[in-house]
Amino acid sequence: MRKAIYLLATLPVLFSCVTSTTQKDKIALKPSQEVKKAQNFLYYYMVYLQEKNKGNLTKAYENLIKAVELSNYKEEFLLEAAKFSASLKKLDDAERFARKVLKVDPKNSQALKILGEISILKGNRKEAKKFLKEALEFSKDKDVYLMLSNLYI
């Protein structure tokens, strides 16, 4: 008899816990949160990282471009876009992003290195030497030394 009373007393508590957790899961974003999400460059950057990890490179690229645009072309995102574009063999886009970095920071050795690599891939050895020598002025990178030495061989 005590077990039956105990069971009847605890059933409403158990069911209220189950329904409250399912209601929390079903809560939708408020319109103001959706607007913030759409305008937030970090959201698109996180989606880029997720899609890149999944192997959806086209979707990853699209989200990275949105993140770059919404971030007002921050240097870090431009560099990431340049590197990722180059890895996708979109050399013109990679060059465009790297040049935007140099407009903000003319001494950015990573952007100069990327431009040097792109110039090598495009077959423009003189321009590649120029960019790689300039990159060495600002950062003593072993990879840059190696690429530059290969151009002189």
Q: Structural class of the secondary structure composition?
A: mainly alpha
| SS strand fraction | under 5%
Query: How many helices in DSSP terms?
Result: 9
**Fraction of residues in helix:** over 70%
Mean pLDDT: 81
Q: List the secondary-structure elements in sequence, H or E.
A: HHHHHHHHH
Gyration radius, to the nearest Å? 26 Å
Query: What ranges have pLDDT less than 50 throughout 5 or more consecutive residues?
Result: 18-25
Give the biggest beta sheet. Answer: none
Outline, from the CA principal axes? elongated
Which key phrases capture this entry?
mainly alpha, 153 residues, elongated
Question: What would you note in describing this structure?
Answer:
The chain has helices at residues 2-25, 31-39, 41-54, 57-70, 75-87, 91-104, 109-122, 125-138, 142-152. With 153 residues, the protein is an all-alpha fold. Helix 6 (91-104) packs antiparallel against helix 7. It is elongated. The model is unreliable at 18-25 (pLDDT under 50).
